[in-house]
Amino acid sequence: MGPFGSNIKAENFTTSGVPVIKGGNLNGTYINETFTDFLTEDKAAELASSKARPLDIVITHRGTLGQVGLIPENSKYPEYIVSQSQLKLSFDRSCVDPYFIYYFLRSPLGQQRLLVNTSQVGVPAIAQALTTIRQIKIDLPRLSMQSSICSIFRILDDRITLLRETNSTLEAIAQALFKSWFVDFDPVRAKMEGRAPEGMDEATAALFPDALVESELGLVPKGWRVASLADVFEINPSRRLQKGSVASYLDMASLATSSHCVEAPIQREMGSGAKFQNGDTLLARITPCLENGKCAFVDFLDDDQIGWGSTEFLVLRPKAPLPEYLGYLLCRHPAFRKYAIQSMSGTSGRQRIQNDVLGRYLLSVPDREIALAFGRVVGPLQQSIAANHETAQTFANLRDTLLPRLISGQLRLPEAQAAAEEALA
What we know:
alpha+beta
């Protein structure tokens, strides 16, 4: 288990040393090695029973349940400390391939057995976590078969990782363009200095003015206007979805902290919550989800479909001619996020951003032609991200479908290899 709270406190954290694995590190393939908290070697030595090493598996037992990560053999660090909400598993590798257990625990069958004894009172938790996990039954093929099965899945995971890395790059490009056009006004400044704006054709460059003027926001491009968010965005726009009807549902855990894509929605009877459609942006309005950066762009529904989700989602949609994806890029912009976080109100631990407060956020608004031009530039980026995410989900679904069939003997290894090769082709 991770250390008791009294054994690891905020003042123990440093900026280098032995990294601390938290839930946020278990949201990718294997383990996400982007760490914010570290311990000194001496403090880590005091917590030796909570150390995790390459080829150990880390599981969240309190908080966001169902998270499973594996520390790969080529991990960045030789050892780690698991946080209070995690536990780690180590294996006798003479009979177990850790990758096999990792894939099993992430599969629907493994998740069912992992979460069979959970409590939702207060913070969600696996009751008697160590005992519960020790009692999980696994159909274990011989070691050579485990490794052969894992070799197929690791190829699929490598392709999933590549797609996710590509999406990170594409989104970074879109965010950089948003900042360049609408925050730093790089094309305008270039024309003021007699230079051709970088990264755009002459027709697009000609749309930008060659002067900045004073405004309540400071210097903004000549001819642009300053408006509040409520003036140029719909905030929680009206969406019709009959109560009791089955529709795509997202909970807060489905939203990522660094990507516009979401975990696959589930089908659930409409109760009470935010309603959304393609082109909307979902922003977490409550602490700590807002601070953690949870938001998403809705592009996973059919064109005439309405989805719904957590009551703690704030739904934003730019008014025409502003492109839809601009709403998501704004929600990722640091200045906007800082404003939202600093404007939260309410009791400690349940603070939220209110619609009217967020609606007072000021931004510079371009003319119609520049707005449309920006949409033409970022639209293909958004579409590529969505397509890559869908492909990655297809690979993940194939992996999760193959595992139980291989274990049960319903599918032979050559058949699984052929299915994977066909999907990857």
